[in-house]
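S1.2 Input.
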Amino acid sequence: MKRDSRLSGVLHVLLHMAEVEGPVTSETMAKAMQTNPVVIRRIMAGLRDAGFVRSEKGHGGGWTIARDLASVTLRDVYGALGEPELFAMGNRTEAPGCLVEQAVNGALNDAFQDAKTLLLDRFNAVTLTELSADFHARMVTCGKSVDLEIVHRE
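S1.3 Output.
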């Protein structure tokens, strides 16, 4: 099963956007994320619908953050992405006839639910402000640039 890295990618883009004065184009974000601008626009549209970003059309347009970073948690962004599957593992079959497999599914379902609850609680406890602070501390340590256009070329 392919890993879904949208949450990581969106958080990455949001933190870069927070460093920029004014709108950031889909093309600029796509270059930084090594993807197609259409992919960025599709993801950003979901964030716009959730009220986290806004878009401006035309010359000088692009995407800007619409909310204070302290008011947005990892859980909020995860929800705006449609709550993708958290785990690649799952049961072999969902409605087995075999009693052994039913016992296995019961144990795994409980463990998966406990892990999901723990992970979502952690997502709920981390804000974009905290991620930004961590980023800034790393930037000071490394002495790297914040410029979205060049930071990923280094």
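S1.4 Remarks. The CA atoms of residues 56 and 96 lie 51 Å apart.
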